Known about the structure:
The complex is a heterodimer.
Chain A: E1 2-13, E2 16-28, E3 33-38, H1 44-51, E4 59-64, E5 67-68, H2 74-83, E6 85-88, H3 100-110, H4 116-125, H5 141-154, E7 159-163, H6 171-188, E8 191-195, H7 199-203, E9 207-212, E10 215-217
Parallel strand pairs in A: 3-8, 3-9, 6-7, 7-8
Antiparallel strand pairs in A: 1-2, 1-4, 4-5, 9-10
Chain B: H1 2-15, H2 17-53, E1 59-63, E2 69-70, H3 71-79, E3 85-94, E4 97-104, H4 123-127, E5 132-135, H5 137-143, E6 151-154, E7 162-166, H6 167-174, E8 179-180, E9 182-185, E10 199-202, H7 205-255, H8 260-305, H9 317-343, H10 356-384, H11 388-420, H12 424-475, E11 480-483, H13 487-498, E12 503-516, E13 519-526, H14 530-535, E14 538-541, H15 545-550, E15 554-558, H16 559-565, E16 572-577, E17 580-590, E18 598-603, H17 604-610, E19 618-623, H18 628-636, E20 642-645, H19 646-699, H20 704-745, H21 756-783, H22 786-796
The complex binds adenosine-5'-triphosphate (ATP) and magnesium ion.
Adenosine-5'-triphosphate binds next to strand 1, strand 2 and helix 1 of chain A.
Amino acid sequence: MLEIRDIAKTYPTAQGPLAVLRGVSLDLAGGTSLALTGESGSGKSTLLHLAAGLEKADSGHIAIDGAPVTGLDDAGRARLRRETVGIVFQQFNLIPSLDVGRNLAFQARLAGRADPDWQAVLAERLGLAPLLARYPEQLSGGQQQRVAIGRALAARPRLILADEPTGNLDEATGDAVLDLLLALVAESGAALLMVTHSARLAARLDARAHLHAGRIGAEPVA
Amino acid sequence: MTAALAQALASYWRRHPLELATLLVGLMVATALWSGVQALNAEARRSYAEAAGLVSGGARIVAADGQRLPLSDYVALRRAGLRVSPVLEGEWRAGDVDLHLVGVEPMTLPRGAAPIGEEAAALPAFVLPPGRAFAAPATIARLAGRPGLPELVASGQVPEGTLLLDIGRAAGLLGLPDRVSYLLAPAGTGVPPAFADRLTVAEGPADDLARLTDSFHLNLTAFGFLSFLVGLIIVYAAIGLAFERRRPMLRTLRALGVPARGLALALLAEILALALLGGAAGMAGGYLMAAALLPDVAASLNGLYGAHVPGRLALDPAWWLAGLGIATFGALAAAGDSLWRAFHLGPLAAARPEAWLGALRRRLVWQAGAAVLLCALALALLLLGGSLLAGFALMGALLLGAALLLPGLLALVLAALGRRAKGPVAHWLFADGRQRLGGLSLALMALLLALGVNVGVGTMVSSFRATFLGWLDQRLGAEIYLSAPDGAAAEVIGAALATTPGVTAALPIGAARSRFAGAPLEIYAFTDDPLYREGWPLLAALDRPWDRVAAGDAVMVNEQMARRAGLAPGDALAIPTATGAWETRVAGVYSDYGNPEAQVLAPVAQVRARWPELELRRLAVRADPASVPALLADLRGREGVDVTDRAGLRASAERVFEKTFAVTLALNTLTLIVAGIALLTGLLTLAEQRLGQLAPLWALGLTRRRLAAIELGQAVALAGLTALAALPLGLAVAWVLTEVINPRAFGWRLPLLLFPLDWARLFLFALATGALAALWPALRLARAAPADLIRRFSDER
Ligand SMILES: Nc1ncnc2c1ncn2[C@@H]1O[C@H](COP(=O)(O)OP(=O)(O)OP(=O)(O)O)[C@@H](O)[C@H]1O
Ligand SMILES: [Mg+2]
C-alpha cells in the first residue's frame, strides 16, 4: 500500500542545512495501521507531508498502491491528495468560511465521492451532529480536530495520514476516535499511518515505528 | 518604557514594509489631491484679489447702466466738492500680448490707493510723455522690444498682464479720451441727488468675478474632497489592519504592565509621525499636480469668465501648513476607531483577531442602518434645501449612503449565488467571497464611489457636450460673424455687403451694459431676422414672442437671468439705464450655455433709445454657402476687422468647452486611479493572510495554479459586481448634477442623455482593475513554495 524507501529531506536554515530525514524506509500494507512516534522536532510531520505529496523529498522513493509519488508533477500530486489520501493535520486546517457540515463534506465532494449517509454516520460517531451549522472559529480545539478527522474520512481514502489526531482530545474521546479509525481500516482495507506521542494509543495499532536522529529506529525502551 | 514601547510598535512596520507603504501612499494620495485642488483655488483667488486690489480704498462710483461714465461727470462732481479720483480700465493689445490697462490720475489719487510710488519727484516722468507704466517683471519680459509703449518699471504689486499708468496715457492707448471707468471716493461718500439717476456706489469688480467663479471653485473643491475621502479609505484600511495584526502584541504589552493611556498615546504618536511623513510627501505631489493642471484651469477660467490667472504657482506658507494639517486630521480620523479600541483593550482580551462572522454581520447591519439614515437626509435636502451648498450636501449624503450600502448588498448577492452554486469549490468560492468582504469592503466602496462619480460626471459632461453642440449649431445661424473697430466702420462694411452678390443679409449687432439684481447685465441688441426667429433656442415663451420683441413690447432673457431672478414669460422687468428704469416684460427665455452673465435680447432701436451711444460694431452675415470663402477672403483683407466663419466660431467654442471640463475629467481619472490603488493595496495587505486561508485548499488537492485562477476570478467578480452597483449610483449622481447642482451653480439646466458605451468602457475598466490588483497576489500564490504553504498552517492558529 504505502512504500517508503530511503527518503532524505534537508531544510535550509539560517544556521546551514538541517537534515531532518536521513534515509527513512517504511512499509504499510492495506488494512493495517502503523504508529509513528518520536520526540518533538524529529521529523514526523515532515515524513507525513512527504507521503501525502505535499512536499518533495530530496532523494528516495515513495509509492502508494505501487504508483510512485516521487516524480509526480504538481497536478499529479494535487490529484493524489484529492482522491487517494486523507490527511488529518496537526493544525486542523479547516476552511474558515465554510460551516462544519460543509467542511466535513468538502474533500469527499472534491474527490467526487460525496456520500451524505456516510457523512451523517461520521458526524454522529465523532459527536459533531449538533455542531454542523457552526463555523470553525466557533469551535473548541478538540471539536475542530474531530471535524478535521471527519473530513479526512468522509472521502473514504485508501491511505489515512493522521498527525496526532487525538492530541487535543480527552482520553475517552481520543479512544472513541481511534476506535473509529481502526474500524474503518479494518472495514475498507485502507492503511493508517498515525503520529502519536501516546504509548498507550500506539500500543493499540498493528505496528510501531520510532523516528530518531532522522532514521527509523527500534522502539525506545519505555 | 517609552523606548521599549516604541521599539515594539515599530517592529511591526519593519516586518511589514508593504503595509507601511500602503499607509503612506494613502496619506500621500489623499493629501496630494486635496492640497493640489486647494493650490489651484488659492492661485485663482489670489489673482482675482490682486486684480481688484491694485486700485483700492474707499468707495467706487460707477454709472448705473454699467457703462463707462463721461469725464464731464467727474468734473461736475469735483466742482460739487467731492474728493473723487478717476480711474480708466480697459483691454489693449500690444502686438500679440493682451494687456489690461489701469489708468489713474496721480494728482487726485488718494495716498496709497495704487502702487505708483510716493516721491513727488517721480511724478513728472509718470505723467509727461512718453509716460511711465508699472508692470510685473514677467509682463515686462514679455513686452520686451514692442514699440508704442511707455517706459516700463518693474513692480511686484502689479498683477501679471496688467499695466498701471497715467489716465491720460491710458485714454490715448484705449482710444477713450473722455471716458472714466469709475471714480474712487473716500469711504462713506454718497452720490449727490443731482446724479442719483445716473451714478451709483458699487461693490468692487472683484466681487462680481468671485461670485461668478465661486461655483467653479466649489466644483473643484468637491472633487478634491471626494479624492481626499477615497485616499483616506486606504489609510483607514491600513491602520485597521495594523491594529488587528498587532492586537496580540498590544494585549501582551498591556499584560506586562503598560497602562491603557500609555499605549493609546504611543499609538497616537505613531500616527502623527506617519501623518507628517505621508503629508509632506503628499504636499510635494499636490504641488506637482496643481502645476500640471494650472494651465487648463487658467484656460477654462479665462474662457468662461474672462478671468486672468497666471500660469504659474506661487504658494505661501499657509498652504503648506494647511496641507500638513489636513493630512494629520485625515490620519487621526482614519485612526480614531483603532485608537479607541486600543484604549479599551484589556490585558485579557482575546488575542485572536475579532471573529469575522459575528463582526461582519454586526457591521453590515450597522452600515445598512447608517445608509438608510443618509438616504433620508439626502431626500430631505432634495426637498427642503435650495442652495448650492445643500446641493453638494445632498450629493455627499447620496455617495456616502451608497458606499455604506455596498458591502451588505454584495453579501446578499454572494449568499444568493452561493445557494445556487454546484460543486464544493464553487460553494467555497461564494462563502469565501463573503468573508473577504470584511477586509475588502473599504476598497470596494472606494471603487464604487470612483466609478459612480465617473459615470455621473461623464454622463453630465457628455450630455452637456451633445446639448451644447446642438445648441451652438442653432445659435450660430449666420455664415459669417465679424466685428469692426467701431460702429461707423461696421456700417460701411454692412452697406458694402448689402450689394454684394451671394449675401442675403448683414445684420448689425451691438451690446450695452447695465446691472440687474446686483450683478452685471448685458443687453444684446439684434436686428430682427428669421435668423433669430427660427434659430434662437427658446426654452419658454409667450405666443408670437418675436413679434412682441420686435414691436418693443417685451424682451427675451437668458436662462441664467430667468432662473436667478425667478422670471417667466409674461413677467414685468425693470432694467436700469442712464435715463431711468426701462420697464418692459419677458417675452421668452432662451438657453445661453457657457455664458456666466445675465443677458437680455432686444431690438437695436429699443436699445439705442436708452443707450444713445450704442455702437453696432458687429455684423451677422448670412450668405450663400458657395460664396462664403470669397467673402471671408475679402473681409479678412480689411484693416482692423475681426472675421470668424461659423466653423471657426464653433471650433473655438468647442475648445473652450473642452478646456472647461479638462480639469474635471482629469480629477475624475485621478479618483479612479486612487480607487484602483485602494483595491490593490487592500489585496496586497491581505495577501499574507490570504495565503493562510488558501493553504488548506491546496493541501486538500487543489493545484496552486487553480487557486491562483480562483483568486483572480474572485477579485474580478467583486470588482464587476461593484461596477454593476455603480451604474445606478452614477445615474443618480448625474441626475443630481444636472437637475440640482448645475442650475444652482451656473444657472442653466441640461437634458440628461445616456451613453451606454461609456458605461461599458468603465465596466471593463473595473474588471481590469480587479484583475490587475489581484495579479500580484495570484502570481505569488501560483509560485508559492510548498514548504511556505505548509508553514502557513501553523501561522493560522
Ligand atoms: N520549512 C521549514 N524550514 C526549516 N526547518 C523546518 C521547516 N519545517 C520543519 N522544519 C524543521 O524540521 C524539523 C522537523 O519538523 P517536524 O514538524 O517534522 O517535527 P515533528 O516531529 O512533527 O515535531 P512535533 O512533534 O513537535 O510536531 C524541526 O526541527 C523543524 O524545526
Ligand atoms: Mg509535527
